[in-house]
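Researcher: Please translate sequence to structure tokens.
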Amino acid sequence: MTIRPLVHDDLEATVELVMATMPGPSDPEARRAWLRTRTTWSLEKDPDGCWAAVDDDGRLVGFAVALVRDGIWGLSMLTVDPRNQARGVGRRLLEAALTTAERARGAIVCSSEDPRATRLYALAGFDLRPTTSANGIVDRSLLPPGLQARASEDFEATVPISRAVRGGAYDPADLAVVAQRPDSGLLLMEGRGFALHRDGPTPMMLCATDGEAATDLLLSCMAAGPRGATIAIDQITAGQDWAIRAALGVRLPLSADGPVFTRGELGPLRPWLPSGVLL
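Model: Translation complete:
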């Protein structure tokens, strides 16, 4: 097994590996297109954070993508072919990706529920933050009138808000790329918060200065989707009671989710819903 830098020639192999190991509900071809866009962007912007694991035949069996933005390191992707799991491949990929964390003051990982993943991050020195999720169909009759969040393309406005919440800002250029997904967009409450949503109602990330703004943004994500659409509010960490109340208020059930891992110096991380891509 060899760990080497990920290169553009690996692109299609990474797409098919993610499709095989991380099945999603969206249209397969649309998802493949998004994965190509996402990985190409990472290779161009974060080449030193992109790593591949290849077997003795040169076949890609795993890869990792890490980014550093405004002093915060994040693990944007780590996946391993199931036939090569429990062989230390994930650990070696994480070690390679963490070399870029040396220039960061804080770090965030959104983990799956797989006990091998949680063990990997815990042994790497990360602190575990338990999470819950809320998934289902929103009872739109319970959405309140007068929501204030509005659709926007002002990605620069997210910088001071995300810096205050996370301890480091999201890069507006990254947000613009993520917003290219079908049925996605930015919702903004000027000076108070923002959310990126996808597939209609599902929030991809949310940062706000106060619980009232965060609640408005989350409910506005729900309102952005068509009637009958399924919403997935993932990895709600402890302390995000505004999100719990909002979800229960529209009759979404709660369930356990994969933990968020953190280490180093970060912001309060509230009100906040993390992004699996940008952390």
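Researcher: Any highlights?
Model: Helices lie at 11-21, 28-45, 89-97, 115-123, 158-166, 172-178, 211-224, 241-249.
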